[in-house]
């Protein structure tokens, strides 16, 4: 795999798979936690979509990677960049050790950005890389649509249940966003190292 291909599919050989794994990990942790009934239902619905046997998100990512010439070995054998590892670790810590409202806020902060980012990625893949096959773009198309519903559901849950601990919720949300942005920084640093 060339460095250019790694750049398209993810600088760490896994790209969004690390974030997908983090999201599924957070949802699994929340599903086993003490969420109230509506929150538990939202969590189970979201987790079911992440693990959908007809189109699980990691499989959709692999379909995209294959379309741009990245093989299964490149995805599974390349270690995740430290920034990707930090995202997974931070989201696991939030979902496992913090109140449900803080974990939901972290998910909301992540998923509230995804639809527009996914649309931008589809446009860029078509325009700059000639990726037009529906199967190759399905990962992004799914996120462009489903995460609109997810963010609305998480926001509604927060508006109803997150009161009294706003400062802690905000602090945790900022930690989650810092970890996400740190992953992007790591991709940028990896690309700079490759260029040297």
Summarize the structure.
This protein has helices spanning about 5-10, 15-30, 35-50, 55-65, 70-75, 80-95, 100-110, 115-130, 135-160, 165-195. The chain is an all-alpha fold and about 200 residues long. It has a single domain, classed as Heme oxygenase-like (Heme Oxygenase, Chain A, Up-down Bundle), CATH 1.20.910.10.
Descriptive overview:
There is one protein chain. The protein has 196 residues and is mainly alpha-helical. The protein has helices at 3-9, 16-31, 37-50, 57-67, 72-77, 82-97, 100-111, 114-129, 134-161, 166-195. It has one domain (3-195): Heme oxygenase-like (Heme Oxygenase, Chain A, Up-down Bundle).
- Provide the structure class: mainly alpha
Largest sheet: none
> Could you give the count of β-strands?
0
Alpha carbon gap, first and last residue: 18 Å
CATH fold-level label: Heme Oxygenase, Chain A
Rg, nearest Å: 17 Å
CATH level-1 class: Mainly Alpha
Oligomer: single chain
What is the total domain count?
1
Corresponding CATH superfamily? Heme oxygenase-like
Average pLDDT reading: 77
For this entry, give a set of tags:
196 residues; mainly alpha; Heme Oxygenase, Chain A; 80% helix; globular; disordered N terminus
